[in-house]
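User: Show me sequence and structure for the first protein, then do the same for the second.

Assistant: Starting with the first protein.
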Amino acid sequence: MWVAKFKLKDEQDIYSPLCEKYKIDFFAYPITNFKKNGKINLIVAGDIYGEEKDKKKYLRELKKDKRVKSMERIGDFILIHAIHPISRETITEITIFYNPQYIIINPVHVSKDGLEYWEVGCLDRKELMKIINAAEKHYNGKLFSIKEEKISSVSIVNIFPNLTKKQKESIEIAYKNKYYNYPRKLTIKKLAKIVNKSYSTFQEHLRKAEKKIIESFLKIA
């Protein structure tokens, strides 16, 4: 399998300008696409990350976009049905990104810096070059790497499986404050103090979150 890693910036995109505006990270996975009534319909799912107040603003403005036909939200997971004119899609060659020969190895990271980070696999190197060329030609794309390798897994969007809001917040706080760095320089007591939570409560939420993630990863839940 040939695997390419690259970034791009789409000024006309639905998500990336808002991610940059509200400092949101959106890990998106294109589920499917189809043509109907002369337009291209896209179904995208993913998780959003950021401050709660910023997420609310992001979703509020996202709903106002005329291209968004519908949006469902459960916690930080969103499912979006968007519609684009075929003319725009054809002109920019964006339909190359929907090529069924491609495997989206990890969710597309629509970052708060306004860029999209892609990791795409394909059995045919020449076919894979088409998406790279389109990214460079139309979206200021930059290729990080392209190489032949064996894929050990494919990630969709279930990054934080079945976590409660408090569990998710706890593990995000731990990660952002480099609790998982080695050597570890921060204790749970210090983390709890940073967010003004009791040690026992914060530890409970963090440990339960870690347990769920490990169980999901090992598929023993």
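Switching to the second protein now.
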Amino acid sequence: MRNKFEEQLNLLNDMLIEMGALVEKAIALAIDALEKQDIILAKQAIAFDDEIDQKERDIEALCLKLLLQQQPVARDLRLISAVLKMITDIERIGDQATDISEITIMLAETPYLKKIEHIPQMAATAAKMVTDSIDAFVKKDLTLAQSVIKEDDTVDELFTTVRINVIELLRTDGENGEQAIDLMMIAKYFERIGDHAVNIAEWVIFSITGKHDKW
């Protein structure tokens, strides 16, 4: 019985890794599309959303099966409950990659304002946080999970800078105001991606230690 349970736990682990890989691909495509103003790449990023949503449902179903049909010990319960929390954040990251790509499509015909220059830095940092949070889960790496949490300050500082730049642009160049606001929305989505990566890292820490900062 325990061997079967261990097999299902390993399957759960693999499924979460697969879901994380899908989200990483969606973010990479969204960033590439944004930088190149490429509608085809943006649509490819959006196309991952349904697959990510289905993976979330499959993982949730397996978690509930493990809880209802097996007798998990405390360590297993921590892992299963952490995975249930993590997949919610991973799915929302996929949604935000879609949101970014949809705005990219709307902006594809207009050259970007050169004054908005910190978004690529936000994108790269947030994407790395997502990758590192998933890697921390795979490797059961507390140090890596903690580094993700610390990196959130960098994303927040960059978002503040983007917001200041947008406010200044709206004050001095009203003609480009609509695009500036759209770009700030993109920056906000990257800031949220960073927040979700932090949530994932916190649940990784919980799955290993049984401790969570918010509890």
